[in-house]
Amino acid sequence: MAQPLTGCALLAIALGVTAAHAEPCQIARFPDIPVTMSGLRPMVRTQINGQDAWLIADSGAFFSMLTPAAAQRFQLPQEPFPGLYVEGVGGSEAARVVRVKKFTLIGLGHTWDGVDFVVAGSSFGGQAVGLLGQNVFRLADVEYDLANGVIRLVRPKGDCKRTSLAYWAGAAQKPYSVIDIEPADVRQPHTKSVAYLNGVKIHVIFDTGASQSLLTLGAAKRAGITPSSFGVSDGGSGGGLGHKVVPTWITRFSSFKIGDEEIKHAQLRFGDAELLGADMLIGADFFLSHRVYVASSQGRLYFTYNGGPVFDLSTVREPAESAGAEAGAGAAVLHGQ
């Protein structure tokens, strides 16, 4: 779905200029994409061939997806794709592909022709019939303002290389954090950066499809914590794409630091999960407590703290037959032969 965003009205906001004779930096915001939170699942309303369809906004999914039941409901012929499978917190599974003749993203006010979706998973929970993935969110910079119920696609224009794109923070004189993110491509489009756990560097993926942020067991061990450590409690179980259900635990770490934000005595969930080379999923709980701007145009990520708990620590019990509903794609990635 890597088509240009055309036919959408843009709102331009002027920012600072950093060099003489340079074209002023402006950010062109596309119309807001409304988000409805279903628990910790950010849901967006779309239309598939004219029929309403709710998708989870999943920045951890490499591509937009539909469940097999949804493909059948919308009468979309499934095409085999040899060697295609998806991988997430819950393991991996084979996938197929369907093509939607008309796909509309409500709010953005635009319809695309001939949009491909990967077909995988069994259930994503609630009304969700699939995931809205990185093939959409890589069309431009993207701002996640989940606390206010919107996602915005943003396109900087002019000399913006050295300009802060946290435009809302400047207007309110609010402190913000900025971190570098790794370069991304079509096969590895995830938003990746680093954080520090008890002073130990860890690699993180920003994943709105993961309801709750999650550390790997290996990252916790490097920070000096194991499931048998003093003060560790049962965190329940969960999963993602695939059918593996992983046990989790909750404990207090002396420090969790990302950008200029440091949480002392942070309580975090960790589990026996593989996260595609990362140590932690930064999930929808973090996005609800922060306003986040993924500036792919600069290779940076900006965020401000909204208030309230940063991490959701409620205990979950995810049955094997519905694994995938709790964590969305869990940083799904495509593999092909």
Number of separate domains = 2
Q: What can be said about the biggest beta sheet?
A: 8 strands, antiparallel
Radius of gyration: 20 Å
How many DSSP H or I helices? Answer: 5
- The assigned structural class equals mainly beta
The 3D shape can be described as globular
Oligomer: single chain
Q: How would you characterize this protein structure?
A:
The structure is a single chain. Strands 1, 2, 3, 12, 13, 14, 22 and 23 form an eight-stranded antiparallel sheet that branches. Strands 5-6-11-7-10-9 form a six-stranded mixed β-barrel. Strands 15-16-21-17-20-19 form a six-stranded mixed barrel. It has five helices and 25 strands. The radius of gyration is 20 Å and the shape is globular. The protein has helices at about 70-75, 135, 165-170, 215-220, 285-290; strands at about 10-15, 25-30, 35, 35-40, 40-50, 50-55, 65, 80-90, 90-105, 110-120, 130, 140-145, 150-155, 175-180, 190-195, 200-205, 215, 235-240, 245-260, 260-270, 280, 290-295, 300-305, 315, 335. The longest helix is centred in the first third of the chain and has 6 residues, at about 70-75. The protein has two domains: about 10-135, Acid Proteases (Cathepsin D, subunit A, domain 1), CATH 2.40.70; about 175-330, Beta Barrel (Cathepsin D, subunit A, domain 1). The model is unreliable at about 320-335 (pLDDT under 50). It has about 325 residues and is mainly β.
